[in-house]
Design a protein that fits this description.
The protein has 107 residues and is mainly alpha-helical. Helix content is 53%, strand content 11%. It has a three-stranded parallel beta sheet, with helices on both faces. The longest helix has 25 residues.
């Protein structure tokens, strides 16, 4: 895996730009504090839209994401722990590797 930390308290617009530039297979967002839930949901929707359009797995977690907020969000997976994230990432990696191998064999 190649990882890149974008830091903490990064505005969603900056995250969207980073996703568009880096084009990762997986984007992990940990949310530990939300000032206003409706503002967060609106900003997160733009982030989610970019990930969906680019076939990027959007994984979320963090203590601020309660069930009520998560019901309003679109994402690939929610992980309670880093262990859950690791398991999801490994599964995704195997899936992507398998697809590449299949494409290479058919060419």
């Amino acid at each position: 895996f190649h990882t890149l930390s974008l830091g903490s308290s990064v505005p969603c617009a900056s995250l969207v730009k980073a996703i568009q530039e880096a084009r990762p297979n997986l984007f992990w967002l940990s949310v530990s504090h939300i000032v206003e839930g409706s503002d967060f949901i609106q900003e997160f929707a733009a982030l989610s839209k970019v990930c969906l359009a680019a076939d990027i797995a959007l994984v979320v977690g963090g203590r601020a994401l309660n069930e009520e907020l998560r019901q309003l969000m679109t994402y690939s997976a929610y992980c309670d722990t880093m262990r859950h994230l690791e398991a999801f990432a490994r599964t995704l990696h195997r899936s992507l590797t398998g697809r590449l191998n299949t494409l290479n064999k058919s060419q």
